[in-house]
Amino acid sequence: MDFIIGGLAGASATIFTNPMDVVKTRLQLQGELRARHEHSAKYRGIFHTLYVIAKNDGATALQKGLAPAMLLGFCMNSVRLGIYHIAEVQGWTKKKDGDISIHKAMFWSSASGVMSGIAANPASVVKTRMQAAAHPSIAVGRQHVYNGMIDGFFKIYKVEGIQGFFAGVNATCARLAIGSAAQLTTFSTVKQFLLAHGYWEKSPATLAFSASLVCGVVCVLLETPLDVVNTRLYNQGPASKGGLMYNGVFDCLRKIYKKEGLHGLYKGIGPLYLRIAPHTTLSLVIWDMLNILFNNKIR
């Protein structure tokens, strides 16, 4: 039940945040391995990107990759939140006096993040490639044509084999270990801090909402460079399709910084924040409320 609750929370939140994920993917692939003066920008900021996508591909294109995105949300959050909730209930994240142990909370949140990344990576690859696919006039990055999520899974397996589903998995695990440690540790710590100071003791929804807002800011600052790397590695495809542009995480980081500068490593930070902040808020609030309802029911 811990895993199902976490998965439902993540999948539900994805419905609302997927358009920002589409925008983020396009911005992160734009000007790939080229300096800013070497290409003309098809997308200029969040609102312009939303407008351009809707104009050229239709408004429904803002929900491209929704099916694998929801599968990703379910797989990732069922494992991540499920493992972390078990650790919380068992007292593995606390000191002997009952207070949150930062070190223990970071360990369990990082471990749960890595496990969730491995479980959800196939869905991440399909999602990113479907979100990048666009009308030729606004296309950025390599284009992969899939007729839906199932077709995407079949084509990746046929051309790239099992390893195709785990493109960028090292970057995924690193990003999620850092992101989950920041998110869940910050969430637990801020909640404890607010309760200790008498805030929203009788309003768990407001308490969870306030703590999750802080999480969003912390996560986006730490995650963006690795998120850019993830997007590039997911989308590059097999070596047979024009050759590999990147040979792993560090090669990707090095090439982006060399060609695009620090700006390249923080491409898409705006939509990433607008995706992470509400997704973090919705996921953690829904997760907290479902756990409260479930715990009250079994009592």
UniProtKB/TrEMBL annotation:
Pfam families: Mito_carr. The keyword Membrane applies. Gene3D superfamilies: Mitochondrial carrier domain. Keywords: Membrane, Mitochondrion, Mitochondrion inner membrane, Repeat, Transmembrane, Transmembrane helix, Transport. One of its GO terms (cellular component) is mitochondrial inner membrane. InterPro entries: MCP_dom_sf, MCP_transmembrane, Mito_Carrier_Antiporter. Solcar repeats lie at residues 1-90, 100-193, 203-293. It is found in: Mitochondrion inner membrane. The keyword Transport applies. It is a multi-pass membrane protein. PANTHER family: RE38146P (PTHR45928). Belongs to the mitochondrial carrier (TC 2.A.29) family. This is Solute carrier family 25 member 35. It comes from Euphydryas editha.
